[in-house]
Every structure is written in C-alpha cells, then in structure tokens.
Amino acid sequence: MADTTRKTEKTYWLDRSENVTKLYRTVWGIGIVLVAADLVIHRHEELGFAAWFGFYAAYGFGACVTLVVTAKALRRVLMRPENYYDER
Questions:
Q1: How far apart are CA 67 and CA 69, in angstroms?
Q2: In three state form, how does the secondary structure of 10-77 look?
C-alpha cells in the first residue's frame, strides 16, 4: 500500500536559481535597452536637466535607493517587540 500521507512541497519557478538568474539578466537587458533608446529618442523637455542622457534612469534608481533607506529608518522607529500585543 502506498504512503498517501506524505506531503510533497510544490516548487515554484522562482525557487530554481537558474530562473532567478534569467529574470535578473532580463531586467538588466531591458534597462540597458531603455537607456540606449535615450540616445535615439528626442524628448521635448521643459527643464534642461531632464534632457540629459540617462536622467530618468538615474532619477528612478535614486528614488528606489531613497525609498529603501527611508523604510529601514522607519522600521527602527516603528518596530515593536514580537510579543507587544500579547502583553496588553
């Protein structure tokens, strides 16, 4: 008689390291293509610095870094002990 009580864990596509590597390389490739498109596409910007090469890529990267650093600082301020609500 087969053992039917044994549970098998489902593996998801991001559980395999080669899929994570493919995804990582794809995101980098798309980013490089978009920055390279900045050389070809002429934008009519209101502000002079917005027309600089790679401005939006640098701006987006800076915004993401700022968001992560701010979230880490907020975590220190807002974090409560694990049993915070159990004591009340």
A1: 6
A2: CCCHHHCHHHHHHHHHHHHHHHHHHHHHHHHCCCCCCCHHHHCCCHHHHHHHHHHHHHHHHHHHHHHH
Please report where in the chains the tokens 């907020």 appear, as a residue: 74
Question: What are 25-68's pLDDT values in tens digits?
Answer: 999 999 899 888 888 888 888 888 888 888 888 899 999 999 99
Say what the pTM is. 0.59
The residue type of 57 is A
Q: Please, are residues 39 and 53 in contact by the beta-carbon 8 Å criterion?
A: yes
Name the amino acid, one letter, at 85: Y
Tokens representing residue 35 in the block = 């920055």
